[in-house]
Amino acid sequence: MNVIVELEKPLLELEAKIEGLKKLNETQRVDFSAEIRALNEKAVSLEAEIFGNLTPWQRVHLARHPRRPLAMDYISKLDGFVELHGDRSYRDDPALVAGYAYLRGVPVFVLGQQKGRDTKENLYRSFGMAHPEGYRKAARIMRLAEKFGKPLLTFVDTPGAYPGIGAEERGQAEAIATNIKLMAGLRTPIVVNIVGEGGSGGALGIGVGDHIAMLQHAIYSVASPEAAASILWRDSTKAEEAAMRLRLTSEDLFEFGIVDEVVPEPMGGAHRDPAKVVDAVLAADARALDKLMSLKPEQLLDRRYEKYRKIGAHEEMVLDRAAR
Amino acid sequence: MNVIVELEKPLLELEAKIEGLKKLNETQRVDFSAEIRALNEKAVSLEAEIFGNLTPWQRVHLARHPRRPLAMDYISKLDGFVELHGDRSYRDDPALVAGYAYLRGVPVFVLGQQKGRDTKENLYRSFGMAHPEGYRKAARIMRLAEKFGKPLLTFVDTPGAYPGIGAEERGQAEAIATNIKLMAGLRTPIVVNIVGEGGSGGALGIGVGDHIAMLQHAIYSVASPEAAASILWRDSTKAEEAAMRLRLTSEDLFEFGIVDEVVPEPMGGAHRDPAKVVDAVLAADARALDKLMSLKPEQLLDRRYEKYRKIGAHEEMVLDRAAR
Amino acid sequence: MTPTPNWLRRRGAKPQPADDKLWEICPSCGERIYIKDLDAQQRVCPKCGHHFRLPALDRIALLADGDFDEIGENLVTGDPLQWSDRVPYREKTQGDRTKSGLLEAIVAGFCTVEQIPIGLGVMDFNFRGGTMGGVVGEKVTLLVEECARRRVPCVIVTSSGGARMEEGMIGLMQLAKTSGAVERFGALGLPLVTILTDPTTGGVSASFGFQGDVVIAESGAAIGFAGRRVIDQTIRQKLPEGFQTAEFLLEHGQVDMVVRRSDMKAALASVLRFLIAKGYGAVDVARPKSA
Amino acid sequence: MTPTPNWLRRRGAKPQPADDKLWEICPSCGERIYIKDLDAQQRVCPKCGHHFRLPALDRIALLADGDFDEIGENLVTGDPLQWSDRVPYREKTQGDRTKSGLLEAIVAGFCTVEQIPIGLGVMDFNFRGGTMGGVVGEKVTLLVEECARRRVPCVIVTSSGGARMEEGMIGLMQLAKTSGAVERFGALGLPLVTILTDPTTGGVSASFGFQGDVVIAESGAAIGFAGRRVIDQTIRQKLPEGFQTAEFLLEHGQVDMVVRRSDMKAALASVLRFLIAKGYGAVDVARPKSA
Ligand SMILES: [Zn+2]
Ligand SMILES: [Zn+2]
User: Fold this and answer.
1) Could you tell me the pTM of the whole model?
2) Which residues of chain B does C107 touch, with a Cβ-Cβ cutoff of 8 Å?
């Protein structure tokens, strides 16, 4: 069960009550405006109480909220989106959507990891976990973007690359490795949006770029908290602790210089006002693209190289034979 | 049953008899040299009688002779051959062998379609009929050849690309189309050897190059005679007629300008003296490479373009409305 | 369908079917449809949506805004193999001309699609099953080369049983010849869009058919490399439901999209408009060698 | 194994195992083997040929002709997350140093292999399971950059559980950082050869591991993206025989060759010698930015 769905229940009930009163107010010609005002104030303070100080683990659940906007919610708000299918080799992977569209008039190729809204769609989309053929479809689109000089816009929202027999047989590692290298050298601007879950190498498979925008309550992690707990302590129930330690929030990653921009969400999370969040993300992308499009390819690639080149955490040790 | 195997039986029996007499001659201290001389003369005239004037259909069977040297018989005579495996996506296809070696000291990447010598090996090698993953392995090798500036040497011997469910599902057409385009623009010399059966698009998938050498008794056809008969007359038993009409012999193709060099075979075919034939093919390749290596990349590509550009068979019709 | 455009009127009347058939039976739903109704519906079954094959001139009329400037229109085959079986090759092609109203299995030229100037080649199954011999290869090559000179996108609508048997290896070599042109064209950063229609198999799918930057398949089209009969004879097992259909290929990742005939022009125009839209950086295009 | 080379002697003695084990049990055949016998056999089981994991310094001794000039040898992690769980990260790495005799999970430097000068990076599973944090990423990047400057091939021997959890996203970003270096290196026409040894999974297989121009797998090595436990938990079905072994990957087209440890040096030298041999045309190599 999603802990945020639990947490926000009293707030949703209160809001339903307010809506009910508002309707009465209009239809019954009785003046409930004072009550409504009081309940509204209560709602605001309840919202602040619930969402004002979320733990990392709660943030993880907010990023996985069942009503959170998904990749296609952003993509479908671009102008004239047309989906392009297939890796030309094995299968069209519905977990990774590809196509082209226009962002404020700028033609862009688009990639997005798409989760389902219900069980049926989740099975169809493998819960947003792409197979190698998904990453290879993405690679094909990347090469098209380079060939035709169109920027690439990606929307990251995946628990990770699909871990299964077929995925391993068909080279999940190779597919992701190829994409990361391809994006590192792609001669066109790349804007990456971390909109929900950024899960490990599966996220990075469409996540290397010139500008990394991250929604305030999205998460981005070296491994899902569950996987990290399993790897670190062979105990996936320690996921909450892992979430705390992994520093996977937008604030952490902005501080580390791993994301370039944090796009704010409304109090309570993106699902509380999806339209506004989608607009804010696309506006941020348009601003970023505008800046990147003015760079020459060599500048762009040098800048991208330096961006990743400097991410590290090493110190020089004074060599002391005894210490070794 | 292979018609050549049938045809050559009396010759093989005669040769066995000669061998037997020779052995007697040595061990029994009886002089059979006159008999041997007579039988040898008979053998020469029998050979000329059998092989002197083969029909196209018999030539097809000679190209498919079970003892004819196969791709690996040539490749293994290169220096230091090392096999490289896999398309990095799906499967290593044993029907299409890839690797690197040295031809008279020149480092070359190598591709070859390999049939089996027995039923077991034929099943393993799919009778030399590559799947898409075979052509994709070849594409990977072609790109390596370009990247590292090594010429590409290919050995064509296939009834055609594998016709099956999986092959279609994984994009046999796309795989071959990609290779043909890739070879058309590959910035390194390509020498192609048609050593056995050149079967249709499946052959061309590793068959576009700067110098096409063809063994005298190899065949190279737009479709196998059986398939052509089936396509033309819905009757695959008419293969013999198709073989006659298709102009699939080395002499025909040299005349059409489709092959650049015909490498002679001993009377009776390559299987009568494999070592000599292998040497002759590799010597022809070395000569061709020597010439091609002296060309600049732009010259090489222009030359390759023109080579194929001019293959055609069109006439201009004086436009006459009535004729349409 | 729109009124007959000028270029089509200039070409003369459409060929009349040999027999005076008035209706066709839909192979999908069995509906009996008057031919003039079928033609008025872009040859799509009004009952079940089955797409009948479309002659090249009808396809051009469907896609082009108006005029169509044909190239290579007077090229005919030279019969390089002097082929003769039951009927000499020259007689066969003469019959195809009558049947199709065309001199060869492809019509190539220049037009606009929603005001976008393009080179357009359209194959016609009524001429030798749309097979590619020397003339088809030459016309595709001319088209691609001329698109490169004019700096316009190239669109090819395929419908073909593959390489033409009656031209033997000359036919097979057209795969390499056309691919050479496509390769040079692609290096200029110009788009090739292919539209695979029923049927597209063999040498045409294994060359320019699948070399498109974007590959569109028409609904229900049979597309593949090997023919069903060859596969049947090789593997002797039941073929899966919908094997080698456009929809099957979409699922297996082979084509970018499956589009109904009624949506084809809009889909094509969208793809073209996007690919040629001014984007990032100047694509490093070499100047043409001749105007 | 050859006598201890100078560079190895300069590094000081090999670490002693914490317990004073004298023998190991072969996990494949159950044979009990004296450790000094095992070391003398390149840590390959004399009975069944099972390849035990090889420490980085032993691997270098196996591959390098003689001297080895280390780079980045004094880099240690900065503990960017100030990580502490049962044991603080800094204490864990201190333990790894004792256990492995190394400051980090990779040793990088320059040497010759059969007289061919190369850059060589070798990972060591004894240090944090060979995981990649900021130091591994930095050292791989330095190595690849320096190979580019020196115009020599780069060889990386992997053995890694993936990105290092204790450095969080800094760890994950090393995939992008190292891939950037590999991309630039490749554009110079210089070869990267990777040797995947037991185990190579996660972030290392999904970056430079599978970015080699030629990818060699060592016999029996476990190689993949997802760990077996994660796959088990996701699909809850029996994994196929030999799943994620080097041999399984060969069959599935993922690696160029599977090579036994005893043949590794010769195989690597053969590949390198071929790739750098003078071939056709001058590869268009940009001059280095700095010496
Ligand atoms: Zn119908
Ligand atoms: Zn053992």
Assistant:
1) 0.96
2) none
